[in-house]
Structures are given as C-alpha cells and as structure tokens.
Amino acid sequence: IDDSPSPNTLWILDLLDQYNMKARFFCIGKNIENYPSYFQAIVERGHEVGYHSHVHMNAWRQTQKEFKEDFEKSEALFSSSFYRPPYGKLTWSMYHYLKNKNIKIMLWDVLTEDWKQDIEPLEKIKLKIKSASDGSIFVFHDYEKAYENLKIMLPYYLENNR
C-alpha cells in the first residue's frame, strides 16, 4: 500500500483484519506528520512499514543532496529496511546510497491504477489479477484520489487471493 497514512488508513486496516491479511505500507513522511495516529495504527496492527520518501518527489527531478535530505527526514520519523521510490525511479547514485544503508528497494510488477478516475475498478482489478503470476507484488494507494476505486478493488483482490 503506497502513500500512507491518510484518513482512509483505518478503513484499509479494518479490511485487512477481516481477511486476516498483512500488508507492507510504504509511508510518506509528510503524511506521517499529518496523521501520526494512523501511522501508529499500521504498526500496532502488525503490518510492515517502508519508506516512500518524505514528500513523494520523483527522484529523477532531485539532486543527490535533495534526495538524501528527503530520505533523512523520513528516516527521522521511523525505521525500516525497505524503500519504494515514488514513480519507481531512482538514479544509480541514489540506489547506491540506499544500498550502503542496507535499505532494500522494493518495486512492483502489478500497478493497480486505482488512482485513475476513468476506469471501471472491478474490471480493472480482474484484469490485473489475471495478468499476475505467483509472487507478484500489487500496489494499491492510500490517498483520497484512489479511495473510491480502492473500496471496490481491494476487497475483490483480498477475496480472490487468499
């Protein structure tokens, strides 16, 4: 789950509890600052957390110094050994910076596109599940723009992938 926490986090956590499922939440530092109790709920309910930057900046649009400062702001808020770069983009120097810190970079192979407003969410998640293979990593999003689609897509995914 990318972009956590948000006002929708508790709904996601409750849904995951219903299915006795755990997820890895890739958190944005600014969102943790804005919703600390929701972040705490993720941790207290036994889910893993990973870094997803402090302000969700595309790393290709940052200098190495900006990237490091951004990462360190998130690192000051919590500890993790996982990082998912926003938009899936890193430079080689950023990759080596994270590797030297023993941070594992976790990408995905199934992007649910739950943020798109012009999709039929049930049909989209069915297609995404059909295109997946064993061990696929699905990405859903925990923010307002994705919420209406997420309410349809995530329950269907959980029901059909147990």
Outline of the structure:
The chain is an alpha/beta fold and 162 residues long.
Rounded to the nearest angstrom, the distance between the terminal CA atoms is 17 Å
Classify the beta-strand content into a percent band.
Answer: 5-15%
Kindly state the mean pLDDT as a whole number?
A: 96
Task: Give the tally of β-strands.
Answer: 7
Structural class of the secondary elements? alpha/beta
Q: SSE order in H/E notation?
A: EHEHHEHEHEEHEH
Question: What is the count of helical runs?
Answer: 7
Cα-based radius of gyration, to the nearest Å: 16 Å
- Shape call: globular
In the sheet with the most strands, the strands line up as 1-2-3
Low-confidence stretches: none
* Major β-sheet annotation: 3 strands, parallel
Q: Tell me the helix content.
A: 40-55%
